[in-house]
Every structure is written in structure tokens, then in C-alpha cells.
Request: fold
Amino acid sequence: MLEDFLDVNSVDAELITFPRETSLQTALFETKISPSAAVRVDFYMNERQEEFLFVYPIKTRLDLGKAKQATNSSALKEKDPELVFEATGYSKGMLPPVGVYGAKVYVDRSLQGKEVVLCKVGEKEFLKIPPDEIVDANEEAFMEKIAR
Reply:
């Protein structure tokens, strides 16, 4: 599914697959990517049932106040793991920052200018992608300050 999206849309990204289940820390070490490039992708919904992906450094936290302001929402609620899978086809904690149709994507501004980021997209799979490519590859994507 993700691999098809990357190919069809000519996304400048690399899907990295390890032979066995691998942690993000191990993937960073094995690929020689800086730990500061590790990102989290969370799935939220607002009061109008709009869906959002928030992409931010794993060592920070999502600032709900800033996320509400960026999305023009009065309330944001993280989707339950079952609903995340139903809506996206991906498990919570393994969401890609591209290819999730219908969701608006917000990338934390602190990632702007980074060469690449790395996120876990499966038990053995990781996506290496430039943050600017995340914005370019999504229909509605924005660079905003959403993390603290």
C-alpha cells in the first residue's frame, strides 16, 4: 500500500525493510541516521470530524493548544487504535506521514530544513523521507509549530 503510493506519486523517499522486527532506535543506528531525525506520526480528529496527521520529533510532545490553533479546531481527540487501523490501514504507532487519504497533515516546523526524517511504518519497515517531501506528497499539508 505505502510502497505503491510512493511509486505512483514519485515520492522522494525510501522504504527500509529489516529481516526481523526492529525498533526505531536500532533502525536509526543501522541506517546511520541521527536520532534527532526520528519522528512520531499521530492521528487526531476534531469536532467537525476532520482527520489530521501530526508529524513531530519523537523526543518532543504534541502541543494540543498549538495543534488546535493550526487546524482551526476547538477540540482535538486522538483516535483509538482500532479506529486508526479502520481509517488508515495502519496500526497506531506505525502511521506513515504520506498516503493517508483524507487526512490533513501538519509537520512540526522544527523539522523544516532537515535532510531526512525516519518513522516506523511496520514491525520491520521504516520510511526515510525529507520533511519537505512530506508536505509536497500530501494534498493538504502544512509546516506549523505543533510540538513543544
Notes: The chain has one domain: 2-144. The chain has a mean pLDDT of 95. Strands lie at 14-17, 39-46, 51-57, 76-78, 103-108, 117-120, 125-129, 141-144.
